[in-house]
Amino acid sequence: MTRPFAVKAGKKRKRKEAKYDKEEAEVMKEEEQTVTTSVIEEDEKVVDDVVKDLPGIPITISDQNSRSGAIFVLERASLEVAKVGKTYQILNSEDHANFLRKHNRDPAEYRPDIVHQALLMILDSPLNKAGRIRAVYVKTEKGILFEVKPHVRIPRTYKRFAGIMLQLLQKLSIYAAGKRDKLFRVIKNPVTQYLPLNSRKIGFSFSSDKLVDIQKYVTAVKEDLNYVFVVGAMAHGKVNDEYVEDYIAISGYPMSAAWCIARICEGLQQKWSIL
Ligand SMILES: C[S@@+](CC[C@H](N)C(=O)[O-])C[C@H]1O[C@@H](n2cnc3c(N)ncnc32)[C@H](O)[C@@H]1O
C-alpha cells in the first residue's frame, strides 16, 4: 500500500526549518564542519529549484507486528555535496569526473549509485514488507550519519534519489507530505547508541577468513536476538568498525553491496518463512 509523499520546499518550509528541535540543532553544529564547507553558505534559491523539480515520492506501509528484526548499517557511503558551476550537486564519477580531477580527487571513489542500489534492495525486500526491518542507517565517507525510515519508498531513478540526498544533507531532514514524520534525518554519531542491546552485530567483508552460508548463519542466531548487518557502500576498501562482533564473508567472490544485501534478506526470509 502506498500513500503520496512530497518534499517540502520554498519559503513556508524555510520558516519551519527555524524550528529544528534541539537535537537537530546540535547535530547541525557538529556535522556542518564535515559537510563540504560550501554547503554552509548554501544558495537557497538553487537548492529550492532542485527540490521543487522533484515529483512526490510515495511511501510504503509495512507490517511491524513481529518479534525480532533486522537493522542495516550502510558504511562509508559516497554522498558528498559540492557546488559545481551554479548548482549544488551530489558528486558522482560520471557527471563530475573533470570537476573531481581538477580538485585532485579520484573520480572512481565517487559512487553514490552504490548506496542508492543498496537502499532499494533493503527497502523493497519482502523482509521489509513483512515488517522485519526495524531501521536503516547510512554513514557517509565524511562521517555524517542519517536514518532512513523503513516505510520510505526510495526513488527509483538515480536523479531523483540524488535530489533527495542533496536536500537531506543541506536541510538535515525530509518529512512526509503534510506530516511530522521525518522520513530521512541526519542524527548524531555514533550509530551504536541507536542499536538494540539484544542484537548480534555482523559485519560483511569479502576479505574475512570466515566464509559462511548466510542462511545457516542466520538460522543459528537465537530467535530473540535482533540482527545488525553492517555492509560497505563505498567503491573500494572494506568496513572496519569496532562495534561489529563478527566479520563474515558470504561468498567466495566479491559482490556488490546490493547483491550482498539481497543474500542477507533472502537468508532471513527463508528463516522466517517470508515468501
Ligand atoms: C565494498 S562494497 C563494493 C562496492 C561495489 N563496487 C558495488 O558496486 O557495490 C561491497 C560491500 O558488500 C559486502 N560484500 C561484498 N562481497 C562480499 C562477500 N563475498 N562476503 C561478504 N560481504 C561482501 C561488503 O560489506 C562490502 O563492503
Your description of this structure?
This protein has 275 residues and is α/β, with parallel strands linked by helices. The protein has a single domain (2-271), classed as 3-Layer(aba) Sandwich (Alpha/beta knot). Helices cover 31% and strands 21% of the residues. The protein has 9 helices and 12 strands. A hairpin with a 2-residue loop joins strand 4 and strand 5 (87-90). It is globular, with a radius of gyration of 19 Å. The two termini are 17 Å apart. It binds S-adenosylmethionine. The site of S-adenosylmethionine has 19 residues, from strand 11 and helix 9.
Strands across the major sheet, in which order? Answer: 8-9-7-6-3-11-10-12
Number of strands: 12
Write the CATH architecture name: 3-Layer(aba) Sandwich
Major beta sheet, specifics? 8 strands, mixed
Beta-strand proportion: 15-25%
> What is the helix tally?
9
